[in-house]
Amino acid sequence: MRQEFEVTLEPLLSVPVERELPFRQRLWQHGWLRKGLILIVLAIIWEAVARYQNNDLLLPSFLQTFQALFDGLRSGELLSKVSISLAVLLKGYLIGIVLAFALTTLAVSTQLGRDLLSTLTSMFNPLPAIALLPLALLWFGLGQNSLIFVLVHSVLWALALNTYSGFLGVSETLRMAGRNYGLKGMRFVLFILIPAALPSILAGLKIGWAFAWRTLIAAELVFGATSGKGGLGWYIFQNRNELYTDKVFAGLAVVILIGLLVENLVFNTFERLTVKRWGMQR
């Protein structure tokens, strides 16, 4: 047997050791700081333009809008409006997700399903969701069901298209591996197609969320209160009629803040725990 031995290596003193990055550069690596600076710069520009124009009715300043936002949150009025809108939004969003996955599962399983998905998306995807609101009022009456109908329409086709394109992009190697394990039907979709197509599915979920959020606000502006209760869009519409422009901007700011929170706290966290952790996305 060969005798074991150990060689002690001398330290490479001639090679320079990389020093730690300066504090400023390490701080600049945080995305939340860069995005926060962008928001601060935008707020400063807003305040400067509003002061230069000097017309609160047309463009209230950032400080006036912030005060209106603070008063609305302190009184609980804005929170109640947001809760009403989010409750309707989540119902329509979840129903749209279920229908989208049902359509795409049928599309990857049968030729008839592919033809059905292609035909329906070509017909209804270019159709604005808000254009269906008059029909929804005739079919479902005054209430949340009309808003849920237009929300499902705004979510369904964008998510179905992204999911189906993600399924088509799954490599043949993964498909063969799933078939070798005996996976068929729904099990094949759940354990092979969905994990492999998750980046496209997440992109569809983001697009569907954005479409649903802006469709809901637009529908509430046109449709008004549902079942005697108005959401965030109705809050903006009422204050516009009463010429409370600072409250209108406060309502719009809440719409933007909710979009930022959902994007950074929900979708980015899910991406970090899944596709980025798995090395599927940079």
UniProtKB/TrEMBL annotation:
<dbReference type="GO" id="GO:0005886">
    <property type="term" value="C:plasma membrane"/>
</dbReference>
<dbReference type="InterPro" id="IPR035906">
    <property type="entry name" value="MetI-like_sf"/>
</dbReference>
<feature type="transmembrane region" description="Helical">
    <location>
        <begin position="147"/>
        <end position="167"/>
    </location>
</feature>
<feature type="transmembrane region" description="Helical">
    <location>
        <begin position="217"/>
        <end position="237"/>
    </location>
</feature>
<feature type="transmembrane region" description="Helical">
    <location>
        <begin position="120"/>
        <end position="141"/>
    </location>
</feature>
<keyword id="KW-0472">Membrane</keyword>
<keyword id="KW-1133">Transmembrane helix</keyword>
<feature type="transmembrane region" description="Helical">
    <location>
        <begin position="84"/>
        <end position="108"/>
    </location>
</feature>
<keyword id="KW-1003">Cell membrane</keyword>
<feature type="transmembrane region" description="Helical">
    <location>
        <begin position="249"/>
        <end position="270"/>
    </location>
</feature>
<keyword id="KW-0812">Transmembrane</keyword>
<dbReference type="InterPro" id="IPR000515">
    <property type="entry name" value="MetI-like"/>
</dbReference>
<comment type="similarity">
    <text>Belongs to the binding-protein-dependent transport system permease family.</text>
</comment>
<protein>
    <submittedName>
        <fullName>ABC transporter permease</fullName>
    </submittedName>
</protein>
<feature type="domain" description="ABC transmembrane type-1">
    <location>
        <begin position="78"/>
        <end position="267"/>
    </location>
</feature>
<keyword id="KW-0813">Transport</keyword>
<dbReference type="GO" id="GO:0055085">
    <property type="term" value="P:transmembrane transport"/>
</dbReference>
<dbReference type="Pfam" id="PF00528">
    <property type="entry name" value="BPD_transp_1"/>
</dbReference>
<feature type="transmembrane region" description="Helical">
    <location>
        <begin position="188"/>
        <end position="211"/>
    </location>
</feature>
